[in-house]
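haha ok so turns out i had the wrong file open the whole time. this is the CORRECT one, sorry everyone. sequence first:
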Amino acid sequence: MSIRLAEANRAIRAALAKAQSLDLSVSVTVCDADGRLVAFQRMDGAIAEADRASIGKAIASARSGRPSGDGLIEDLEEFRAATVLGEGVPLLRRAGGLPIIRAGQVEGALGVGGARTDEQDAVCAVAGIGTLDELT
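then structure:
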């Protein structure tokens, strides 16, 4: 199973609300387990590079099944990770992407980019993931 659009949009709204409460302007991406875009939003005032950052973090996290800040480069040898290599290699070691895992299966990931620090991106990602049910 893959994350559904309604769930992706709900998670994005929560991540954006957290960013707004912290006075941040970010981009948020949700992708499926193969790293394909499900939903994306950029806040007014977010820098353009935030788009690529949120996408790269989401893809890295979805393909590895781990948070994007966990030093993933050595684990990405399979071909389907090539998308990450095209968009996000520098982002593989940066926090802000979290996998969406239910019943032991990776259904996708949420990535946040554009905050002042990667830790703030991660806080916003946690807020988004927290809206999804039955995560393990």
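Strands lie at 27-32, 37-42, 97-102, 105-113.
again sry for the mixup
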